[in-house]
Amino acid sequence: MSQAQRIDVLIPTYNHGHFLDQCLSAVIAQTRGDFSVLVIDNASSDDTPAIVARWQKRDARVRYLRNDINLGHVENMKKAYRLTSAEYVVVLPADDLWQPTFLEQTAGALDAHPECAYAYTGWRNFFDMPDGGSGVPPGTESDAWIPHCASGVVEDMTWLVVGNWIPLSFGVFRRAVCDRLGGLFPEHLGHIADLLLWMRLSALGKSCFVKEPLGKIRHHGKNTTHDLVASGRSAFEHIHVLDLVYQSDLWSHPIRLLAKCCQIRLMTGMSLYDTATRFGNEKTPAMIRDYLERHRSDFYVAVARCIIGYLGTGTGVGTNEEAIRLLDAALELSPGHAEATALLHSTQTLESAPYPTWIRNHALTEIDAEVFAERMMLRWREKPVFHLLMWVEPQQRALLADTIDALSRSFYRDWRLTVIAPFACLDPVLGEIPVLRWIEADPDSALGALNQAVADGDGDWFALIPPGLRIEPHTLLRFGDYIDLHPEWRLIYCDDDSITEDGERIDPRFKPDFNLDMLRSTDYIGPAFVCRAALAAAGGSAFLIPGAEGHDLALRILDAHGEAAFGHIADVLMHRPEAIRPGADDAHRMAIVMHLERRGVAGKVLAGYLPGTFHIEYAHPSPAAVTIVIPNKDALEFLEPCLNSLLEKTD
């Protein structure tokens, strides 16, 4: 190999000839050219040799090697690594793609930062499987979740113990560092060998992150990951790799304890905070407790850092409040702890940051959209059908288009949309959408049409939404997840915000879990999915009060099924149009009055201080007796006027 070729691009492939042209095109198009390509064919039976031969004629940097037998995908990559020798290495499976500046930016970052062991970029999911294979529409793309908000030198290990966001395809690493660690994959891990690689590299150096999404992972239904998850091998390896971290001297004791904490979390479902705070409790043997006490402050800081990195991802690692409690405990144990102090400041800064910063830090509620699809296929007991309903005025046609566009990008495909409008559907394209039903009805019969649509539809869960409401691509998957986890829930709502005509997200509403007093004061729930089977005990019809349909329905679900029937997803999954029309105050007041009557609660529903809010003046059955205690010692000059005032102003 010439001195100029500093990068080895290893392309392992097996029967992926139909992807190779795109893959090699992306490699040869790189703006940095000091690389050599080795396509290592794991005994494919397709036209892979012929495709590579064409590329070899076009570019001398492309080499090809075919195995006589299939070695397995890990051994195939290890063989390719042993047969190459360049300073930098990157493994690009044949089904993934790069943007033209990938090597320029990653290898350039390693050139500029000799202290870094590897460099990687942002990336996107690309779904290229037959429709219905995973519930994700073909051609769908989504941004990947990465815990870093900006390019630069970063440390990854405290977050890698929870999960891997660095696909093998999009990281370039130093061969010298990898060799010091025993080679590419010293442990045979079929699913998460890449995770262990990044963990080991991070033990000997930092990393460079390039924020731009310069790669695409192709999900085509035959990825190795799918088979490993289905076989149960993936679950075993996630537990095993944390054992390897705990047993190795590569990492500090706080990181090793964090790995053990994450392992226990995986097997119990407890949050990291709950697991960590149980380490070394009063039931722990003294020898173990003494060991834990020596590292407790640094351990708590590592757990807090891990929690902060995964805030808002839906992984159940912990909350911001729990991270702060851990940092406070670390500072109490080790006053002046520099990292604890810095992290505590960062959490306070994040809480006061503007909403765009919050959005950037909570870009995706899961590490990988593929995880959603796998969980749906492997764990869900049932796949619910979501039925969305909407009343559309003639002037709201553009808003309707926004909603349909957002729904078309949904990862979950089992949804229906019923549009009820006082005009006929004039767009022939809408008529061709099989999951869209258009009902023409005048305003006076709109409520009846909505109720009939719910009754006639095949949706297990339904929601009345305003025109222009947009959902995230993973919104319905998140709702489906919670439906599977909480079969007792009958009404599920999420946080939301407003979206302007220019697409800017503003005015977030971070809602509480069920709050009776708040629901009696305002319709804080907003658009929500309701289990259709719950209607029978809640009055039969979905919508009864025009202008307060959702508020009234929530109160009826409460009266029929109790507070335990309400579920809240603490994530911004819906975006309301900025110009949404508020409901009529009189309608909402009627909904609250009828709720109080059903409950047998006497009281007056009065207007609140803000539009759309109310105050209940509860009636008492009889005047309440009051006991007044007056503390006093040697202060008759104060006691006398006090008593006189009481006698004058009370009955």
CATH class of the largest domain: Alpha Beta
Name the shape in a single word: globular
Helicity, as a percent range: 40-55%
How many structurally independent domains? 3
Low-confidence stretches: none
Number of helices: 24
CATH architecture classification of the largest domain: Alpha-Beta Complex
Gyration radius (Cα, Å) is 30 Å
Calculate the terminal CA-CA distance, rounded to whole Å: 102 Å
Number of strands: 21
Kindly summarize this structure in a few lines.
The protein is an alpha/beta fold.
Structure in words:
The protein has 651 residues and is of the alpha/beta class. The protein folds into three domains: 1-231, Alpha-Beta Complex (Spore Coat Polysaccharide Biosynthesis Protein SpsA, Chain A), CATH 3.90.550; 252-379, no CATH class; 383-616, Spore Coat Polysaccharide Biosynthesis Protein SpsA, Chain A. The chain is built from 24 helices and 21 strands. The strands form three sheets. Strands 1, 2, 3, 4, 5, 6, 7, 8, 9 and 10 form a ten-stranded mixed beta sheet that branches. Strands 11, 12, 13, 14, 15, 16, 17, 18 and 19 form a nine-stranded mixed beta sheet that branches. A hairpin with a 5-residue loop joins β16 (491-499) and β17. It is globular and about 100 Å long. It starts with 6 loop residues before the first strand and ends with a helix.
